[in-house]
Structure formats: C-alpha cells, structure tokens
Amino acid sequence: MADRARATIHDVATLSGLSICTVSRALRGLPNISPASQLRVEEAAEKLGYRASSAAARLAGGKTGHVAIVVPKTTAWFFAEAVEAAEEALAHGGLDTVLMSLRGREHVKDALFRNPDELSERVDGVLLLGVNLDPVQLEALAASKLAVASVGLSDVPWDNVGIDDEAAAWRATRHLLDLGHWDVAILAGNEPSDGTVRTAAQRQAGFERALDDEHLETDPDMMVCTESTIDGGYRAMTELIAARRRPAAVFSGCDEAAFGALKALREHGITPPKGVSVIGIDDHPMSSFLGLTTVSQPVADQGAFAATLLAERLDNPELGSPPQDHRLPTSLIERKTTRRARH
After folding, report:
1. Are 171 and 332 in contact (CB under 8 A)?
2. In terms of pTM, does the model score above 0.85?
3. In what order do the strands lie in the sheet with 184-189?
4. What are the b/e assignments for 134-155, b being 16+ CB within 10 Å?
5. Closest by alpha carbon to 300, among 75, 57, 10, 24?
6. Residues 58-73: pLDDT tens digits?
7. Bond before 273 cis per omega within 30 degrees
8. Is 22 exposed, middle or buried (0-12, 13-18, 19+ CB in 10 A)?
C-alpha cells in the first residue's frame, strides 16, 4: 500500500477501482457522481490518508505557494472553462494562481520559457493550457526546477491531460457515414508548426481514417483549412459553396467553425440538416442552443485533473511515478444538424 504521506490520486483510483477522472470529480465534490462511487472514493482516500495538499509544508520549505496558469488567450470559452476548473482544484490544494494570457505575444512567451529561472522566483509550478512551445522553450522549461503539467499538448516530458482527438474526429465522421453521407467535406483547423499542439492534425487524421475504413479517398476539393473561429468557418463554407461544390455533409474540426458554416449555409438558403448535415467537436456552450450535433469533450475535467496532478508533484517532488499522458473520454451528442441521407 502507498505511504500515507505520499498517497496520490492514482493510488486512490487504484484502491477504489474507479477511473482517475471519476476520482478527481468525486474529490472535488462535483455532481453526476453516484453515491456508491462517491463513497468508494471517500473510503479509499481515508484508508490511504490521501490529502489534496500540504500547503503549510510547502511554505515552510521556502516555496511560494503560487502556480502560473498560462493560456493563449482568456477570451476563448475552452480556456475560460479550463482555467476556472483548474483554479478551483489548485485552491482546494492550498495553492494560489497567477493567470498569464499570451494573446499572441511571442516575445512574452519567449521571455517566460527560454529562461524560466526568473519565473521560478515567482511561482512553484506552471500549468500550460494549449500553449505551444518551440524545442528550445520546451527543453528549458523541462530542465527548470518548476513543476509542470499541461492540457492538450503532445510529446511533452511532464503530465499531460487531453482527449484522443483522432478518435473523436473518427467518431464524428463515422456518424456522418453511418447516416449514408458519402460526399463529406472537412473544415480543417490551422495550428502552430512546432508540434506541441497537434489537435487539428489529429482531427484531420481521424477524418481521413474514417473515410479510409470505407475505402473512400479524401477529396482535396472537399478540404478547406481555416481558423478555428466562427469567421473562419463562415469563410470556409462560403468558399466550398461558391468556388467548389456543396457537399452532402460537413465535418468541422471544432464547434466554433461549425457555427460559421451554419451561418453561411443559411445565407445560401440551406438549413441543416436539409441538404447538408453538419457535425463538430467540443460541445461548445452554444452548441445546444444552435442544435449542433457534436462530439463532446470534458473541458473542465481536463483543467482540474491537470491541476491536481501538478499539485501532487509539488507536494511530492520525489514522486516515483513517471509523467503520463492521460486521455479522457468523449461522447457523441446527436442534435438537429444531422440526419440520414435521403437518396
């Protein structure tokens, strides 16, 4: 059994027989946890002597008690929701947070991560939410004395939490194919070229794999790269209709681009799912209001889980378990913008 002073959320999950995500939600007192699961988590935590943090011990050891949460921008719904959940989890662990929004300012990111010694004087750890790092920045941060965790990154040497973006896109595209739509377009996202954020590439790969499963080839005329925004989706859908051809169905790499696609279609007299079925990924808060069929991802859980892992690394610097890449489940939500093909 784990040492009582070093019990982690992994130990609680193992003893309770539940997923780490479920344990994380139960420990935070969130709803949608069955009473039986809540009890199993509480009993396992009590048996192990699990505690969220040892803030007093950290401060006595000369630590700041602060964590920097770094985001590309605070205005995007994904980052706002993830930040709120992360802050709650860190506060539960006795940690204060410093929110840093990069807002496209490469010089700020460079100053933070190419030489993170100055940052380490202000905070004990860093939580990166979808922030891409170049190889020099990544190596410097990994070599620093800062504890690090992230959400939505790839191939990083610290704990990361995310979803299987390729599987989510495969599921979304598979839904369109199962409805009998064979002429499917993709609104593919753009992303940084450094490789630490690969969401768009992985979602495109999932789209292509679903077509390949049916021995279908990806039609270059049915693929438009665009920004993951409403305006980007609007421009991409307008281009498909005007300069190319109208597809039977559209897979959008994110819900926000799907919103723009819906707007463009309606301006051309097409109201999905009549004529064109549309599906996205994310389950943006507006998706339910607009009736968008989508593949939902647990945004708040990702932020809170990554924050919990970071707090545990701060509590236990000698924690023996290696960093892991955790993938949380997604789910298909059928609404009003997809329907079976009518031939």
Report:
1. yes
2. no
3. 223-226, 184-189, 249-252, 277-282, 293-296, 331-333
4. beebbebbeebebbbbbbbbbe
5. 24
6. 444 557 899 999 999 9
7. yes
8. buried
